[in-house]
Design brief:
Layout: E1 21-24, H1 40-53, E2 57-61, H2 67-79, E3 84-90, H3 93-102, E4 109-116, H4 119-126, H5 130-145, E5 151-156, H6 163-176, E6 180-185, H7 192-205, E7 213-218, H8 225-235, E8 239-242, H9 256-265, H10 281-292, H11 313-321, H12 349-358, H13 365-381, H14 387-399, E9 405-413, E10 420-428, E11 431-439, H15 442-453, E12 459-467, E13 476-484, E14 487-495, H16 498-516
Parallel strand pairs: 1-2, 1-8, 2-3, 3-4, 4-5, 5-6, 6-7, 7-8
Antiparallel strand pairs: 9-10, 10-11, 12-13, 13-14
């Protein structure tokens, strides 16, 4: 089941020299966030969204890390219609061969290879002398070139690397055939002026530096990732590496949505352009937040719940007179719909289908019918149905379309006066099973009853609930994370009844765990 957005008019483009390539690494660096792993189906869903919204390069994963990562990169390479698909590789033959094999079916394949260049990394991580690192730069890029002409080379921990040695490494990469040179601020150590000067120095000092594309890859440990990225562009970099919602290692990466809107709103001082459709930003943010179970902080720039909210009386007065008094961009410019749905329990199929199209969904007939039934059930329970309710409902339906375990019925006994009990009926591979169980609270009882039907040894490191909209009749969206034998999965569920949403989320995670049990999960690997 997929969602498709209606085509939009082509926007005016600027000068060719002001074109900035948007390189999205949500599926690679973003997924390295602890607990943010995604299934193959979720990765394909995110990749399709990125491709449709106009991202230039999708870094689809780290193929050597696991069979699952290799499969994801390979499948994304096959389905991407417009974007370059990149696979990451360390400076070793096995890594590069694996990445080259993974991206070979892409219309526009790229191999992205890297090695650490800072003194602290070379001494403690690589345990290599600078001469050996320099040799590895040349050999890795040359090997990557045997798979594709589009080769990106990165100097991991570049901002803590001695300048002379960094120049030598960049020169070696260019001579070996790299077409993009990435200068990562791997640990978020740099500040804007410093990062600007580093990029400018490399472009001006390294032979051939004016014939390749320099790229930024900034982490947010000091909250400066976006500022550093834009400073790099001001210095001459023409590719920015970023992620949806800024997810990534530790404090994350430069946020794609902040990069895009900074350029759009302040084009007077940031005169650069790209092909990303900003009106898809909100949908992409919600999709990534949902599949990773990483909620967006309320005051997050551009996509936070409060980004376009005004509670102060002074602010409200100004907004009523003219929204430009307190808003520098419109909610619509990032795809946010403020109005309530003009729909309810009397709405028919045609109106519901049109609303879905308006919101960017295009469902197959069976999927539409399932979603419509759940919408009617929701409309019977809620006084007001909002766009966010529909999004949660449809996303939940899409996530569970192919599940082998489904929730059929649930009854919960809770309160202060007696034991907490849950009776649940599950459909497992076409057969219904019913169990009753107790627990330390209603949610614990539900999970115990499910475990009686589907035995497992998985640990529950995360149970998270948030309201999709406001009010006592709001839908609850629940995220459940399970860990078993080194495998981590996240399930989601939505319903006006938090207990039902909890059961759906737990069952969703179990369905994913079933799939993951069949795959090998080697040790995780990290980069830039």
């Amino acid at each position: 089941m997929t969602s498709k957005r209606k085509s939009k008019p082509t926007k005016a483009k600027g000068k060719a020299e002001d074109r900035v390539i948007i390189f999205d690494t949500t599926l690679r660096d973003g997924e390295q966030s602890p607990g943010a792993s995604m299934t193959l189906e979720e990765k394909l869903q995110v990749a399709e969204m990125l491709d449709e919204m106009g991202v230039d390069v999708i870094e689809a994963g780290f193929p050597i890390a696991s069979n699952g990562d290799f499969e994801a990169v390979s499948e994304i390479a096959k389905v991407a219609k417009n974007a370059v698909v990149a696979g990451l590789a360390r400076a070793g033959n096995k890594d590069i061969d694996r990445a080259g094999e993974a991206v070979k079916h892409a219309k526009r394949p790229r191999v992205h290879t890297f090695i650490s260049t800072s003194p602290v990394h070379m001494k403690y991580k690589l345990q290599m002398e600078s001469s050996a690192v320099l040799d590895a730069v040349t050999s890795s890029v040359q090997r990557a070139r045997t798979y594709t002409d589009d080769v990106e080379w990165s100097a991991e921990d570049a901002t803590r690397t001695e300048h002379d040695f960094l120049c030598r490494c960049v020169e070696a990469a260019i001579k070996a055939g790299a077409t993009t040179i990435n200068i990562p601020d791997t640990v978020g150590y740099s500040v804007p002026d410093e990062y600007h000067d580093l990029i400018r120095m490399l472009i001006e000092k390294v032979p051939g530096g004016d014939n390749v594309i320099f790229s930024t890859h900034c982490h947010n440990d000091l909250g400066l990732a976006v500022a550093n990225s834009l400073a790099g562009v001001r210095a001459g970099a023409r590719q920015i590496e970023c992620t949806i919602n800024g997810i990534g290692e530790r404090a994350g990466n430069a946020a794609l949505e902040e990069i895009i809107m900074a350029k759009n709103v302040r084009n007077d001082v940031i005169p650069h352009w790209n092909d990303v459709d900003p009106e898809m930003i909100t949908r992409a943010s919600k999709l990534v937040a949902g599949v990773t179970a990483f909620p967006v902080q309320y005051n997050k720039a551009i996509v936070g719940k409060n980004a376009f909210a005004h509670e102060s009386g002074i602010h409200q007065d100004g907004m009523l007179k003219n929204n430009q008094t307190y808003e520098i961009m419109t909610p619509e410019s990032v795809g946010l719909k403020e109005s309530s749905l003009v729909m309810g329990k009397h709405s028919g199929r045609h109106a519901f289908r049109e609303k879905l199209k308006e919101m960017g969904y295009e469902l197959g007939e069976n999927a539409f019918e399932d979603a419509f039934v759940r919408f009617k059930d929701l409309a019977d329970k809620k006084k007001h149905v909002f766009d966010e309710d529909i999004e949660a409902l449809v996303d939940d339906e899409m996530a569970s379309a192919d599940d082998r375990i489904k929730v059929v019925a649930l009854t919960v006994i809770a309160g202060t006066g007696g034991p907490q009990k849950a009776t649940i009926t599950l459909n497992v591979d076409g057969t219904q099973h019913t169990r009753e169980a107790g627990g330390d609270g209603p949610v614990d009882a539900i999970f115990n009853a499910i475990k009686d039907i589907v035995p497992h040894e998985a640990r529950l490191p995360l149970y998270q609930v948030h309201a999709v909209t406001e009010g006592t009749d709001a839908q609850a969206e629940v995220s459940v994370r399970l860990e078993e034998a080194g495998k981590t999965v996240t399930g989601r569920g939505a319903d006006t009844d938090t207990m039902v949403a909890s059961a759906r989320a737990y069952v969703s995670a179990l369905n994913k765990l079933r799939v993951k049990r069949k795959k090998t999960a080697p040790k995780s690997m990290m980069a830039s």
